[in-house]
Amino acid sequence: MSGHVVQAQSIGAVHFHPEPPPTPHQIRRPRRTFVNREGELAALVAALGRLDDGEPAIVAFTGLGGVGKTELISQFVARHRAHFPHGDLYADLAAFRHLGGVDLSEILAGFLRAFKAEVPVMLAERAARFRTVTTGKRVLVFLDNVEHASEVRTLLPSDGLVVVAGRRRLPGLVLDGAEVRRLDPLSTSAGTELVRRWLGPDRGTDRELCELVELCDGLPLALNAVGFQLVGHGELEVDQIVAELSDADRRLASLSNEEGAIGQMLDQVYGRLSPEARALYHLVGTNPGPFVSAELAEASGVERVRDGLTELRAAHLLDEVEDTAPGQRFRAHDLVRLHARGRARELPERIGLLARIVAYYRGEAALADSLVLGKRFRLQEPVEAAWPGFATKPEALEWLRAERANLRETVRAAAEQGWHGEVWRLCESLWALYHSGKHYGDWVETHRLGVESAQWDGRPGAVIRMRNQLARAYYELKDFPRATEQLALASEQLPLVAEPRLSGVLYETNGLVRLAEGRPDEAVELFRLALEDNRSDPHGVVVQSYNLAQALTAAGRVAEALTVLDEATALAEETEDDPMLMRLPLVRARAHRALGDLDLAVRHADESARRARDLGQRAKEAEAFTLLAALAEELGDAELAERARVRLGELKEAN
C-alpha cells in the first residue's frame, strides 16, 4: 500500500494560511449635518443592551420617503461602530425588487461573500449558511426599503442587531420581537437648525427659515436640496426660494402625492444644475437599472463626468454604492430617480441615449464573458468594448455580479424597444454570469425574452442558443420536463442552420439531462453525437470527451472511459487547455475508483487538486480533496484523511 502513502505526503507538502476575512463595512458614511432624532437614536442604543444580554435585536423605522431613515442609521453606525466588531452589512431591497418580489437569495449571497463564506445554490441553504456564519458574532444588518415583514425574516442573522427601514407600516415584525417606530418629519425648530448650520447666522431670517421648512414638509431630502441651492449659489436668497415654493399653482399640483414637496424642490435643483450635472441626471433617469457609473456615463456621451458626479453628490442626489467590484457605482434615492425619469422622458434624444446605454452593457458583458469563459463557441460577432474596466476573470465576474440588476433591466428595455439583436446577444454573454452565479429568476426571464427576440430577428441559430441556455437553467433547477421541452423546440430550428456545433450544444444538454435522470447509456450516445459535431473545435472536443467519460463511468464502461480520457488529455495538452487539464484527472480518478484501483485514483485526484490550486479554482480543488477524503476512508489511511480534511478546512475559510 506504499503508493497511497506517498501520495498522502505529496498532498500534505503545501499548506496555505489564508488571511482572516476582512471585516465588512457596507453602511455609507453619514452626512456632516444632522439634527434631532434623539428618541430614535436612544431606541437603537437601547437595542445594544439586548445584545449585551446575548439576545439578537430588531428595530424598524417607518415613514415617508425622504424623511431621513437611511441617514439616521448611518449616524448611529458611525457613533457606535465599535459595538459591531464583526462588521455591518447593508442591502437596499429596492435594488433587488423585481416583478413584485425581492431576490432574497442574491442579497444573502452578497452577505456571505462579504464574510468570504461559501455561497450555496438554493435560498434555504444560503439562509442557513448566513445564520451559521453569524452565530456568536456582533454584526449589524441594515435592510433598507423593506415593504413586507416576510422579506426581513429570511435575512435575519443568528446574532447581532437588525435595523429595518421602510415606508409601509410593518406590524408583522412585532411578532419577531421587533420594536417598530415611526420616523416623523423634522419639526420646524429642528429643520430650521439644520438649514442654519449650512447657511450660518447671517443668511435668512428665522421667519423665512421656518416657512422654508414648512414648505419642505420637514423632509430632510428636500431640505438637503435647499441647502445645495443656497450654498452653491451665493447670490440666491432664502426669500427667493420661499417665493418659488409658495407659487400657488405649483404647490397645488405638488399636493397630489405625499412626496410633493420633494418633487417641487427637485424641480428647482434640476433647473440650477450645470450642463454636465444635468446630462448625468438624464442618464440616471434613462438608465433602465438602479445604478450608474462614470464608465457608463462616458460611454454614453456625458461630458465632464467627474464634475457632474461631484455636483450631484454634493446635492445629495447620488450616493456611492459600497461593493468590491471594479469601478464605482452610484445610486439615486428612489424618489430622485423617479423625478429624473420624468425629466428624461421630456428629452428628444432620450432613445438615442438609451441605445448608447444598451450598447455599453452589451459590449462590457461580451468582454466579461470572453474573459471568464475563454474561446467558447459564440454566435455574436466580437465587439469592441466601450470601457474595459477589468482585466482578470475574478474582476470580470465581480463586475457581472455588481451590474446584474442593470443587465437584467437593460435586456427588458431593449426588448421593449424592439432591439432584438441586442437582446439575444446580451443574453448570450450573460451565460458567464448565470452559469457561475445560478441567478435562476433572472436567467429564465431574460432568456425567455432572448428566445422571442431571436425569433423576431430571424436568426434560427440564435433561437437554438437561447433555448439551449434556457434549458440549462431548467436543468440546473432539476425541472427536466421543461428543459426537454425547450430542447425539442430548439431542435425544430436545426434544418435552418449549417453550423454543426449548434446541434452539438443540444446533444450536450440532452445528455446532461439523461445522466441526471439516471439514464447513463442514453447520455453516452448523446455525448458521442455532441463530440462528432464539435470535431472542428478542439476545446469542444475536449469538453464533450469529458462529458462522455463521465457518462461511460456511470454506465459501468470504465475501460472505454479511460480510453476517451487518454485522447482528450493528449488534445488538451497540445492546445494548452488548462481548465480542462484540471478537470480531466478528476474524472479519471473516479474511473479508477470504480475499478477498485484506489492508488491510481488518489494520484489523479491529487493532480486535479494541484492544477486547480495553480489556477486559483478553489471550488474544483475542494471537489478533488472531497474525493481524496473519501478515498482515504476506503483505504483506511488516517494521515491522508487528516491532510485532506485540513486542506478542505483551509479552502472553506478562504472562500
Any descriptors?
disordered N terminus; 63% helix; five-stranded parallel β-sheet; 32 helices; 655 residues; globular; mainly alpha; three-stranded antiparallel β-sheet; 6% strand
What this model shows, in words?
Helices cover 63% and strands 6% of the residues. The protein has 32 helices and ten strands. A hairpin with an 8-residue loop joins strand 9 and strand 10 (329-331). It is globular and about 90 Å long.
Distance between the termini: 34 Å
Report the sheet-strand fraction: 5-15%
Model regions low in confidence, pLDDT < 50 over at least 5 residues: 1-18, 248-259
Instruction: Report Rg.
Output: 29 Å
Please work out how many helical segments DSSP would assign: 32
The beta-strand count equals: 10
SS content category: mainly alpha
Give helix % range.
Answer: 55-70%
Largest sheet properties: 5 strands, parallel
Average pLDDT confidence is 85
Assign an overall shape: globular
Main sheet: which strands, in order across? 2-5-6-1-7
Please provide a brief summary of the model:
The chain has 655 residues and is mainly alpha-helical.
List the helices and strands and how they pair.
Elements: H1 2-11, H2 38-52, E1 57-62, H3 69-80, E2 88-92, E3 97-98, E4 101-102, H4 104-114, H5 123-133, E5 140-144, H6 149-153, E6 161-166, E7 179-182, H7 188-199, H8 206-215, H9 220-232, H10 238-245, H11 248-254, H12 260-271, H13 275-286, E8 291-293, H14 294-299, H15 305-314, E9 319-320, E10 329-331, H16 334-345, H17 350-373, H18 393-402, H19 404-417, H20 420-429, H21 431-437, H22 440-456, H23 460-476, H24 480-491, H25 500-516, H26 520-533, H27 538-554, H28 558-574, H29 578-595, H30 598-615, H31 618-635, H32 638-654
Parallel strand pairs: 1-6, 1-7, 2-5, 5-6
Antiparallel strand pairs: 3-4, 8-10, 9-10
